[in-house]
Amino acid sequence: MHVKINIFSRTGSEEQKFSSRGVLKAEGEAFSVFYGLDGDDCVLEYSGGVVTQRRSGHLTFVMQFAEGQKTECILSEKGHKFVFPVFTTLLGASLGEGGCSVTISYVQGEEAEPTELVFTAERERIQNERRAPRAR
After folding, report:
1. Which residue of 21, 38, 64, 131 has the fewest CB atoms within a 10 Å radius of its CB?
2. What is the dihedral of CA 34, 51, 86, 106, to 10 degrees?
């Protein structure tokens, strides 16, 4: 399904908001959202209580989140590769007919900066989309 994506991120006192459009594919309770951001290709995947976020292009990274688990972020930019620790304190994900949402709280880096990420992908109404008639 085609979706409108909103991403909110807060690290310390710095907040960022991004919007995009993409495609949501679901299989059972697992889902993937494919979208573009600043010219890069991105995908957010949820399966079995684990969220994986991938971005490739000018900025390339892979981050994996699992509640109560320590993982790593692998980031590469302009030929330089960086790896830093990530500890996920809270992870919530939901999937429904209208789209999906993911909320993650984690600490990252050696400084253990607290970070919050809220990702929503809502069904996009497409012009001339067929609608089911209302029951009378």
Report:
1. 131
2. 100
Q: Could you tell me the two tokens for 86?
A: 């990530």
DSSP state of 1: -
Sign of the dihedral through C-alpha 55, 56, 62, 64: positive
pTM of the shown model: 0.86
Q: Take residue 79 and report the two structure tokens written for it.
A: 């030929």
| Interatomic CA distance for residues 108 and 83, integer angstroms | 11
Token match 């600490």: residue? 107
Please give the torsion angle defined by the CA atoms of residues 50, 55, 61 and 63, in that order, rounded to the nearest 10 degrees.
-10
Per-residue pLDDT of the chain (136 residues; tens, 9 = 90+): 999 999 999 998 899 999 999 999 999 999 999 999 989 999 999 999 999 999 998 889 999 999 999 998 898 887 888 898 899 999 999 999 999 999 999 998 777 889 999 999 999 986 665 666 666 6
